[in-house]
Amino acid sequence: MKKNYAFFIFCITLLYATLSFGQQLEGYVFDQKTQKPLTGVSIYFDGTTIGTSTDSNGRFMISYEESTNSPLVVSFIGYNTQLLDVRKQEQGVKIYLTLRPQALGTVYLVNDPWSRQKKMEIFKREFLGTTVERYKCRILNLDEIELIYNPET
Questions:
Q1: What does pTM read for this prediction?
Q2: Is the pLDDT of residue 27 over 60?
């Protein structure tokens, strides 16, 4: 009876130890267009502190618990972020990131009809005022002041 009880406790301990050990995922991250490995890609579980990054060969290795429900985030500047279910990935998974198009806002070029001297006189009048005390004040960094006049606004 005692042997059966000891064997039962041993089996439960072994089962618990097997289930409680974390899993590990190993894989690679590549640029989809060039097929070259990407270095420094951030790989982490969303909402956790568990994360890693790829090495110079695009390789990563990340450990996680069986109970982890957060999606695996694969993120790199200039590329679209991917969210993966870690339980559906196989060891040696290859992840291909696509470039994210970068668009700048509209740039308008406007001719500034006023000279810097005229803009500086108006700035000093508005900033320092028109009283006698304005002559006691000096602006020491006039070259650092950027003045733009747009006649439309």
A1: 0.55
A2: yes
